[in-house]
Amino acid sequence: MNKRVKLWDRYFELFLSEEQIHERVKAIARELNKDYLGKRPIFVAVLNGSVHFASDITRFFHDKCELSFVKYTSYQGLQSTGKLQRLLGMQENIFGRHVILIEDIVDSGLTVAGICEELATFEPLSLRVATLLYKPKARIHPIKPDYVGFEIANDFVVGYGLDYNGLGRNLSEIYRSV
Ligand code: IMP
């Protein structure tokens, strides 16, 4: 039987191992190294979920870059509330810069679309999205992430930054709800 964890009232089973995650993160970093060589991009990580992904991606990015954070909220428990609320906005000037938005997961796509819309008003030279996980079947907004770690089914997942009501972010692996 797969390794399981219990968070609050729910059980989650092992879905992606630490090795699988690191392999994909390194592969995305290799693409980014190629695409952004000499461009001094600014990585904008969406808190809290993308904290591990952003940390690993930027450590595997070997040219000059910057790292910044924004924070929005739209989820409560297993459900998106559908409303995007900004808790921490952009501090850096991204006008004329190459920006890569770092997300943990693109589900309905509404969060990433809303954040991109806001960042676009600052007129970056380019704006792309890198996400560790992508649920194409849950997509409501037509936005498509540019760099994807894993396309997954419409399951609720936790670990490697992703939480269930605050728990599970510290897990090194990714688990899915059973
Ligand atoms: P979206 O707006 O529906 O694409 O949701 C994006 C945000 O919802 C992500 O940044 C996560 O914080 C959260 N989220 C979506 N799906 C999951 C999941 O399966 N587990 C944990 N958080 C999730």
Kindly list the characteristics that best describe this protein.
single chain; 178 residues; alpha/beta; Rossmann fold; 6-stranded mixed beta sheet; 4-stranded antiparallel beta sheet; globular; binds inosinic acid
Number of helices, where a helix is a run of at least 4 consecutive DSSP H or I residues = 3
Radius of gyration, taken over Cα atoms and rounded to an integer in Å: 16 Å
CATH architecture: 3-Layer(aba) Sandwich
What's the average pLDDT? 94
Alpha-beta classification: alpha/beta
Distance between the termini: 12 Å
The CATH topology corresponds to: Rossmann fold
Spans with pLDDT under 50 lasting ≥5 residues?
none
What is the strand content?
35-45%
What is the molecular shape?
globular
Q: What is the helical fraction, as a range of percent?
A: 10-25%
CATH class: Alpha Beta
Largest β sheet strand count, sense and barrel closure: 6 strands, mixed
Would you kindly provide a written description of the structure presented here, covering whatever features stand out?
There is one protein chain. The strands form 2 sheets. Strands 5-4-3-6-7-8 form a 6-stranded mixed sheet, with helices on both faces. It has a 4-stranded antiparallel sheet with strand order 1-2-10-9. It is α/β, with parallel strands linked by helices. The chain contains 3 helices and 10 strands. The chain is globular. The protein is 21% helix and 38% strand. The mean pLDDT is 94. The protein has a single domain, classed as Rossmann fold. The chain binds inosinic acid (IMP). The site of inosinic acid has 19 residues, from strand 4, strand 6, helix 3 and strand 9.
